[in-house]
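pinned: reference chain
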Amino acid sequence: MALIRPAVLAALVYLIYCVAFPDGTGTVYHVIVPACIAGGVVGLWLLRKLLDLSEGALKIALEAGFLIGVALFLGYTLPQKSGKPPLTQWSEGVRPTQDSARRGFKRLGLEPRGSVASKLVGLLPER
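pinned: its structure tokens
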């Protein structure tokens, strides 16, 4: 469980970026970054084993710090057609819309009008 939770949450962060900002480029990026995230999860697991952290607030703080690091890394490095990474676009006022989320789900090979996807798309503004 110590390895699975951070891996699943980091993958979720990655998928959220891919859905919210679907106009990405760089196929090599999408091969290397998940491998780096997986390596980071293993590194986090080893660090927790070295520090003998099985329970407590420090364990949760390490995981939260790792996930924040993953979110910032992806936010500032995910290549986009506009040439600006997602967090730069966000700071300039560009926000994900329902249309971009539909394109993101479609790019991932998921049906954007499916039951789960349509509920997630509905959380975003129309424009």
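why pinned: The radius of gyration is 16 Å. The chain is about 65% helix and 0% strand.
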